[in-house]
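Minimal example, chain plus S-adenosyl-L-homocysteine.
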Amino acid sequence: MSFTVNKNDRLNVYVEDLTHDGSGVAKVDGYPLFIPGVLPGEEAEIQVMKTMKRYGFAKLINVTKESPDRVAPPCHVFWECGGCQLQHLSYEAQLRQKQKTVRDVMERIGKIPHVPVHPVKGMDDPWRYRNKSQIPFSERNGEVVSGFYRSRTHHIVDTDVCIIQGEEADEIMSTLKHEMHAMGIEAYDERTHRGMLRHLIVRKARATGELMVVLVTRSKKFPQKDAAIDLIKRVVPDVTSIMQNVNSEKTNVIFGNKTLLLYGKPFIVDTIGDIKFEISARSFYQVNSEQTEVLYGQALEYAQLTGTESVIDAYCGIGTISLFLAQNAQEVYGVEIVPQAIEDAKRNAELNGIDNAHFEAGPAEEVIPKWYAEGKRFDVLVVDPPRKGCDEKLLDTILEYKPKRIVYVSCDPATLARDLRILEDGGYLTQEVQPVDMFPQSSHVECVAWLELALSS
Ligand code: SAH
């Protein structure tokens, strides 16, 4: 088979679509080319960089007809940094695009073209929304660099400002960067495995304003510890918690196993709705607090609890959704694979005086069949799996015992659509899908789907 498209060709193309990672898609005689930086509806001059059997990659030379939705990206490192993919698209258009992405996979993968996919619930102010920043530090030509990785690389794009993270994170990041050499602290060098500071993590509880700063160091011995504490207290005087995490391994993983308290409390407290949560350095916690309330509110609405139901929260993390549901249910059973998260969930239940939420550590696909085998029965099942979707064994269990209602919270529409197809084949009907924008400026989209068991099943 011979291609009409060859490497280095310069072509004029019409951009039809946007991929999940924010590249434009143009077809030349049916052959798809992926082109970063262009938007649907645009015409552009491009150069082909790489051709493969079914598709190729090209780079943008010049946009010849601009989309009315194109805007100037407000971040000065947007084109280099891998953190955001959509700053060049107006926020309204980002939301429309995400709705279309979800609709497309419901049709193509889920084979449920008629399911209502509602307009994406977005933010009024889609900036500075992240409550957690994880910032790598390194040395380059004798200077400290810190910022975010270029897409698919370990090259840090140096910056002092990131407008999707909190202002405190910017201030701590840039002050540390500019003053740490004078204090005698070297940044960690991945290649030589030398230097001290590997990562800075800043977490802020939106509801209470409590702030945690974590310094990840190569060794436990950190002679400039007191100076570092003083610097952080100078930048954020009412900081709640300063922690040191020790990571001595040659690894890409951010955290090591040892976490030490340097100043204040070892956790911060946040609230979502009426529920309080203690968050420690390593706890999983949704990064967009404002939209988390929207997401959980939607899950609760679809669960339609009256107070008499027995509910499962599968993939429950630190029990955030479980505790939300527990206020309106008879019993909630949460299951999660990370034992530390289950400890957090139990403590958080206690902290809120909630005694109808039960938690068990283990794989959902093993713990839930065990619950059923013990004779427990459930009216509603909530699942919130990682990107790869629900385990097949869990779907089998659902189809064997058939709870009346399922609420599926998903961070990947493609695996959601795949799992909805399996559940539909097993007798469920998908009622609605509500996308929620948890990550403005990025191409991610979160969804909540509501399914009911069909009457004949
Ligand atoms: N519902 C929580 C967490 C969702 S993230 C919240 O909103 O905060 C998905 C969670 O699934 C993670 O905490 C991950 O540790 C957990 N997980 C991954 N595989 C799992 C499995 N097989 N069984 C149970 N939990 C799993």
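Residues 284, 286, 315-317, 320-321, 335-338, 341, 363-365, 384-386, 391 surround S-adenosyl-L-homocysteine (CB under 6 Å). The chain has three domains: 10-65, 98-124+288-453, 132-272.
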